[in-house]
Amino acid sequence: MKLLALETATEYCSAALWLDGQVIERSVLAGQRHSSMLLPQCRELLAEAGLAFSAIDAVAFGQGPGSFTGVRIACSVAQGLAFGHGLPVVAVSSLRALGQKDERRLLACQDARMGEVYVAAWQQEVTGWQMLVSPTVCAATEIPLPEGDGWIGCGSGFAVYGENLRARLGSKTVQVDGARYPRASRLAELAVDEFMAGRHIDPADAVPLYVRNRVALKISER
Length: 222
What we know:
Strand order of the largest sheet: 3-2-1-4-5
């Protein structure tokens, strides 16, 4: 199994190549340079592995939510590669990619600007990951509360709105990591599981997950 994963939903730009269980990655703080950096990262990874694009079995992308421009870049590059080489596509939530393999309860919370956060929650069960809170956008003081305790809180939302989130969550979180961001290496691991379970799509059906319908506040609202 050879899978190429792309993640550009935040200020970081990363690409990863899954090679039969081994992962190599390129990740850099890109600011707004994702469009000029993502394909070169892909080419570097394939060159390092001695592969051509045609050797890839599938391409995965971070579907968002996140930067509107960022998620569009990952989606469009994934579509272009998939159409060009006849590959299936795997779409994975960028919030889910904040979690680590050994964590059982993930409360992902990314800064959404405009005083809001993107939030979602998953729990690891015998049958696999179960989504308990669907990706949504809201004020930090109003995030949905998942049932139970022992949640790992992660994402830039905790760095920006940590005090508000701690007041809202109380004792539900046992650990918080506000410096964590979604990486293509973790996205690749999740995407392989999705692919093997048959949850892949035609490139024409690959779309970003925006959650929020508005990009900015009006002058009067600001």
